[in-house]
Amino acid sequence: MTLNPNSIEARDVAYHLHSYTNARRHEEIGPIVIESGEGMHVTDTDGNRYIEAMAGLWSVAVGFGEKRLAEAAARQMQKLNFYHTFTHKSHTPAIELAEKLVAMAPVPMSKAYFTNSGSEANDTMVKLVRYRSNALGQPRKKKIISRIKGYHGVTLASASLTGLPNNHRAFDLPMEGVLHTTCPHHWREGRPGESEEDFATRCAEDLDALIEAEGPDTVAAFIGEPVMGAGGVIVPPRGYWQKIQAVLKKHDVLLVADEVICGFGRTGRMFGCETYGIEPDIMTLSKALSSSYLPISALLINERVYAPVAEQSSEIGTFGHGYTASGHPVAAAVALENLAIIEEKRLVEHAAEIAPYFQEALGSLQDHPLVGEVRGVGLIAAVELVTDKAAKVAMQPPGSMAAAAFGLIQKNGVISRAIGDALAFCPPLIVEREHVDTIVEATRKGLDQLQATL
Ligand code: PMP
């Protein structure tokens, strides 16, 4: 395809390096330029309208074009466009948001700390964990365990926690002190005849063996998403979190719940921790915190974490960490308004109500010859594509099948996301049955179109 050299697409190719994009392929095909959004839909510069079945990047919970958020931003921008939270300064939006998040937390939390992205929140978590161990006189207790296919971001530390080859390969990662344990995907990793419970037991035994092998006095924390998102929407097997938490308790290892995708209603409860009975010491939050209208993220830490960190900062003289925009007043004001909308419109309850319809409708694709597994919980799901259901294998090269299906489904008016050989779906929480029907119809049609080419 040749792009008109004066077009917006050609200018993008000329000047813009894209995230998660094959740069050479991008030079050939150019971007789809999204121009506007309203509710469940976005529209591109050619006038094509799509259902955004991924809520952008798992994030636009209240839907696109919410005027109340634009107004909240404008009000705060006019009152106090910026102030920081260093050196004993504060401002009302950050204070109110910290208070609100601690009150909302599913387990007793002590403090909120503000950052600007999920990656920064998890990076900050790594630093807090180190700082705490030093404060407690446990300088060896620094290692952090995450999981194969877990996704925690792309800064040097958070990309190390992420358990995906593309985030490590050619970046010289993971860094030292980060370990990865078993991916809890029963369909893919379970042995023939192994029940979900037995597989969950094996995952916990693997974690226990890893901690024992490394030495419990060297392992500080374990991080996991209640439901894995960007690694392919992997729903934990029955009993998984109870068994994992027992191992962590036994070895005095902190539990970090990465709620960047699950937080604020995605799984049908306010937090994924509530859906799975997880009792974390630290939570990281972003995305639906502001519905991604502005960048903001947060950590919630309990007293076990706060007390030694506070002690250490007073010994050193300062907590030597912080971002210029930590708790940015405009982003915090937008987050507060976003949380107010989620509560007033009862979007978490709505997500729980519509979830069975969403899961069953997508589940109906299981009968399609190209579908190996449909999995999900609440309003997040994945459809795993295969060419051979029994062998659980897809087209070569890996990822090409979902990429092809994704393109066809997008032409049919629905934006999903290709992850490996799976298609992910994570619509705004305002999704209604008619949108679900359209998403499933466009997907089935796309799979039929793909099958016709095989
Ligand atoms: N944690 C999880 C669970 C995520 O899904 C993501 C982003 N997809 C991140 C962390 C990183 O967030 P960000 O892209 O804002 O750095």
TrEMBL record:
<keyword id="KW-0032">Aminotransferase</keyword>
<dbReference type="GO" id="GO:0008483">
    <property type="term" value="F:transaminase activity"/>
</dbReference>
<keyword id="KW-0663">Pyridoxal phosphate</keyword>
<protein>
    <submittedName>
        <fullName>Aspartate aminotransferase family protein</fullName>
    </submittedName>
</protein>
<dbReference type="InterPro" id="IPR015422">
    <property type="entry name" value="PyrdxlP-dep_Trfase_small"/>
</dbReference>
<dbReference type="InterPro" id="IPR015424">
    <property type="entry name" value="PyrdxlP-dep_Trfase"/>
</dbReference>
<dbReference type="Pfam" id="PF00202">
    <property type="entry name" value="Aminotran_3"/>
</dbReference>
<dbReference type="InterPro" id="IPR049704">
    <property type="entry name" value="Aminotrans_3_PPA_site"/>
</dbReference>
<dbReference type="InterPro" id="IPR015421">
    <property type="entry name" value="PyrdxlP-dep_Trfase_major"/>
</dbReference>
<dbReference type="InterPro" id="IPR005814">
    <property type="entry name" value="Aminotrans_3"/>
</dbReference>
<comment type="similarity">
    <text>Belongs to the class-III pyridoxal-phosphate-dependent aminotransferase family.</text>
</comment>
<keyword id="KW-0808">Transferase</keyword>
